[in-house]
Amino acid sequence: MQQLNGFRVVITGKGGVGKTTLTSCLSRLLGQRGIKVLAADEDPQMNLPYALGMPPQQAAAIVPLSQNPDYIEEKTGARPGKSFGALFRLNPVVDDVVERFGVRIDDHLDLLVMGTVVQAAAGCLCSENVLLDSVLNYLALRNEEAILLDTQAGVEHFGRALAKGFSQCLVVSDLSFNALAVARHAAELARQLGIARIHLVVNRYRDEAKDKLQRFAEATGTDTAQLFDVIHTLPGEPRFEELEPDVTRILGQDSAYVTGLQALADDMVAFEKQRQEQSVTASVSEESAT
Ligand SMILES: Nc1ncnc2c1ncn2[C@@H]1O[C@H](COP(=O)(O)OP(=O)(O)OP(=O)(O)O)[C@@H](O)[C@H]1O
Ligand SMILES: [Mg+2]
C-alpha cells in the first residue's frame, strides 16, 4: 500500500471555541491510526501539554523553544535580543529539534512547545522568529508523519510566516456570531497563505441551531462554500468537564464527539492521499512530455 506523505495542519479560531481540545484529541486519534504526530503548541498559555494528559508538574516545567537562547543561537547564529544588525542563517536545519526539545507522550505522539515571539513590529525578522518558522514550515517530515499546530486565539498571529508548509487548516468555531466572524477572517487569511484545504469545524453543534450558520452567512454576505472546502460538526460533550484537563481520555469512550472526530480525521487523510496521487500524476505527465 502506498505510504502517506508527511503533512502539516494548523488549528485556529476565536478564544475558547475548543482548539486545544480538538488538537489534543485529534493528535491521539491520528496516532492510533499509525500516523506519527508532532503536536506543536504555539499558544503562550501552553495548555496543550495538560490537554494531552501530561502530569501538571511536568507540564509546568516545560521551557518553550522560543526561550532557549542557546539553541536559537546555535541554529541561527544570532542570540535573541542581541541580533540587531547581526547576520543570521535564514533557513537553519532544525532536524534535531524534536529529539532535543520534544516531549514523548507515547510511541506515536511527541509534543513541542513553541512559545510565541513578542514582536516589535509585524513580521519582525528576529532570530526567534526565524527559528520557529524553520521548525514549523521546513522541518523534514517522513512518510506517515504529521504536525498539528495549536495556535493562540484570534488571527493576529496568523499572517506571520506561519503557514507556508501547511496543507490544511482547521478553523474551529461555535455558532456564535463573533466566533463565526473570526472563523471567516481566519479562512480568508488561510486562503491567502495558499493552504489547500480549509475546514470549518463547528464545535458544540446543536441540531436546533442548524440555521445559525445560514443566518450568519446571509447577514454578513459570506459565501461559506467559497470560504471553506468542507464543514464538520462536533457536538457538545458533557464529559469533558469531568475529564479535564486530560480530555483525550474521551477517545476510549462511546461519544458522538469522537464519532465526529473520526469523520474529520478520515477527511484529512483522504485529502492528503488525493493530493499525493495528483502530484504523482502531474510528475508522470511532466516526464512523458519531456
Ligand atoms: N465539544 C465540546 N463540548 C463541551 N465542552 C467542550 C467542547 N470542546 C471544548 N470544550 C471545553 O471548552 C473549554 C475551552 O476549550 P479549549 O481550551 O479547547 O478551547 P481553546 O479554543 O483552545 O481556548 P483558547 O482560545 O483559550 O486556547 C474547555 O473547558 C473544554 O473542555
Ligand atoms: Mg487553546
Automatic annotation (TrEMBL):
Q: Name one GO molecular function term.
A: ATP binding
Q: Is this entry keyworded Nucleotide-binding?
A: yes
Give every CobQ/CobB/MinD/ParA nucleotide binding domain span.
9-230
The yes or no answer to whether the keyword Ribosomal protein is present is: no
Keyword set, alphabetical order: ATP-binding, Nucleotide-binding
Example of a GO cellular component annotation carried by this entry: cytosol
Q: Could you give a single Gene Ontology term from the biological process aspect?
A: negative regulation of cell division
Quote the protein name from its UniProt record: Carbon monoxide dehydrogenase accessory protein CooC
What is the species of this protein? Syntrophotalea carbinolica (strain DSM 2380 / NBRC 103641 / GraBd1)
Q: What broad taxonomic lineage does this protein's source fall under?
A: Bacteria, Pseudomonadati, Thermodesulfobacteriota, Desulfuromonadia, Desulfuromonadales
What is this protein's gene name?
cooC
